[in-house]
Design brief:
Blueprint: H1 3-25, H2 36-53, H3 55-58, H4 64-72, H5 78-104, H6 129-150, H7 160-179, H8 185-194, H9 200-204, H10 206-225
Length: about 240
Amino acid sequence: MNKQLAEFIGTFALVFLGCGTAAIGGMGTGATAVDLLGIASAFGFAIVAMAYGIGPVSGCHVNPAVSFGVFVAGRMGAVEMATYWIAQVLGALAGAAVLYIILSGKATGWTGGLGQNGWGPGYLGEYNTLSALVFEIVATFLFLVTILGVTHPFMPKGFAGVAIGLTLAAIHLVGINITGTSVNPARSIGPALVGFASNPKAVAQLWMFIVAPLIGAGLAGIFYREGALLDHPKA
């Protein structure tokens, strides 16, 4: 398996499992309902699983913002980052497409939701643009601080996947009612484009979930590249 195929599979799994839990479990009632903790856990568990499944192959970025942060930190080249981005977006589109096919077979109750991100009137907590922007930047920054820290050569081996997955779950607990929690452009692009017919607003708001995560990831990458968080960032 090459790195790009691994990133495709990993991002597919993240969207299928995470967004699938939000879209399918979110429609349940009573014993079949999945609450905020369940959705956050699904995203976190998906990352833990993929970290050990494809981490040895590609590093398990499954997120263009992660690849950008790693690039800014000086740990990968621009060409490789671009190939990761392509694989990640294609994986997210495939994951959302499979969810669409499955949900299309539901007799009643499905309104076209695929776990799309968003903000503003009519979306979950109805937070405004500034709230959504600040959350996505700060959350992605903290996510990348964790990733760049636990994957550094000086850190103990074998526990990175658990730390990263738990961090992503915690971020979702804070952010689901604000933006649905993206911190990942590919995760937002896949459901938004595949579900465009039922929710065109999600596509109009995609700029937030591309720009904000890249800003947050870039800031974290700069801190590590300049040695602000570790004494020997290039060792």
